[in-house]
Amino acid sequence: MFKIDETADSAAFFEEFERVCAKELTPAYSGSDAWTGVRVFDLRGANRLSELPYLRSHLEKIGMKNVAMVNYYNMAPRSEQHAHRDQSGNLLFGISRLHIPLKTNPLAFLEIEHIRYQLKLNEVWALDTSGLHAAQNESDVERVHLVIDVKRAPETEKYFPKMTMAVRLHLAKFIIIMGFKVLRDILTKPATILDRMSYIVRMVTKQNR
C-alpha cells in the first residue's frame, strides 16, 4: 500500500455521498451491520454516475475505460473488518484499489500485512488486495471511504507499484494461496468460483465507454 502523489477534495465527495447514497448503505458482508457499503459502478451493469456528477468528473480524469468498480464503504464506530485477501482490486489481475477517505479520524486504520496505516482526508492511497488486509475504527464516529478499482494502463501507472523482486515474491505467494482456495471452491461450491472468475475476466478485458 502506498500514498499517491495527488490530492482529492474529500469534503466535496462526502457531500455528494451524503446527498445521494448515505441512506442506501447495506451490509458488505451478510450478518454484520458494522461494515456497510453501496456500489455505484461495476462491469456487471451497475452505473449510477449520472446521479454523482462530482464523482463522475473524477473518474473521467482517470479514464472511464480504466475503471472496474466504485463503492462507498462505511465502518461503524468501534468496529473492525477481519483480515482477508480479495480477488477484485488485485495486482495479479492488473487492478489497483484506490482508497479516498471522505470521513475519518485518528483512530481509523487500514492494516496491510500487519502494518497499520492511517489515511487522512484529501489523500489518495493505492492498495493491492492480494495482500492480507483488515480495517479498524476504534473511534465513536463512523468512517467513510470512496473505493475505486482501477485497471492497469499507460495512463494509470502511478496507481501501481513498480515490479520489484519483493512485489514479484508477494504475488507468487498469493498465487499459491489462491490455488489452494480455488481448488477448494471447485470441489465445494463450483458455481460461485465460476461467477467470480467470469467477473475477473470482464474486469481485465472489458472496455468501458
TrEMBL record:
Residues 35-152 form the Aspartyl/asparaginy/proline hydroxylase domain. Pfam families: Asp_Arg_Hydrox. InterPro entries: Asp/Arg/Pro-Hydrxlase, IPNS-like_sf. This is Aspartyl/asparaginyl beta-hydroxylase domain-containing protein. It comes from Pseudomonas pergaminensis.
